[in-house]
Amino acid sequence: MTRTTKTLSLTLASLLFLPAVTRAAEAAKGGPAAEARADIQKTLGFVPQFFLKFPETALPGAWEEMKTLQLNPATALPGRSKELIGLAVAAQIPCHYCIYAHTEFAKLNGASEEEIGEAVAMAATTRHWSTFINGIQTDEGKFRGEIAKLLLSLRGAGMTQLLVEHDVDLITSVCDHLWVMNLGTVIAEGKPREVISRPEVEEAYLGKAQR
Questions:
Q1: CA 81 to CA 87: how far, in whole Å?
Q2: What's the gap between Cα 200 and its chain centre?
């Protein structure tokens, strides 16, 4: 082996070794990953194996996401709904680990066997129709129009609906009253066609209003 080859080999070995040394040093002195594991221990009473195997650099963000959304009792969705959604998605992935976990957590949050069954059935139904409608490449404009007709039919039957939507044509055709929000704040409300023509709404959603 030549001196040049030896030098290159030593340099490569050093480059491979340094990250391991850095991780070991960070683990010894703490750092974001160690703090995340400590918080997991405090919150759950132990650190599950999947967290122990999670990449050090990504662990703090992953734990923050789970803690502030899935485990947070103050979110807009109650725990039962979140776990039923998680179960429905897990059933379609499919992931038998997640199915087991979300089923147990849903029960813990008060979900009945009937609700669990309906969540999985809705997931199956959604996948079935999504496959068909997407596969036949149905006309999107006509599809949106048909959804609007269905909404109008339901309204005519006396059913109150809360629609969260950005499609202006759909909103103006089916809504009686409109609230417009920008960055979490209501900036206008009233009759749909009147509201969407207001300067503050045009500026927020269409760019600066043209004078």
A1: 10
A2: 29
pLDDT at 119 over 90: yes
DSSP 43-72: HHSS--HHHHTS-TTTHHHHHHHIIIIIS-
Taking only Cα atoms into account, the Rg of the chain, rounded to an integer number of angstroms, comes to: 26
The tens digit of pLDDT for each residue in 5-25 reads: 544 454 444 444 545 555 555
Cis before residue 19, ω within 30 degrees of 0? Answer: no
| Residue 14, number of CB atoms within 10 A of its CB | 10
Q: How far apart are CA 178 and CA 181, in angstroms?
A: 10
- H or E element at residue 185: strand 185-190
CB 36 within 8 A of CB 59: yes
Tell whether 32 is covered by a domain: no
CB 60 within 8 A of CB 37: no
Whether pTM exceeds 0.70 = no
Q: Rounded to a whole number, what is the distance in angstroms from the first to the last CA of the chain?
A: 78
The total domain count for the chain is 1
* Residue 50 resides in a domain: no
Q: Is residue 114 part of a domain?
A: yes
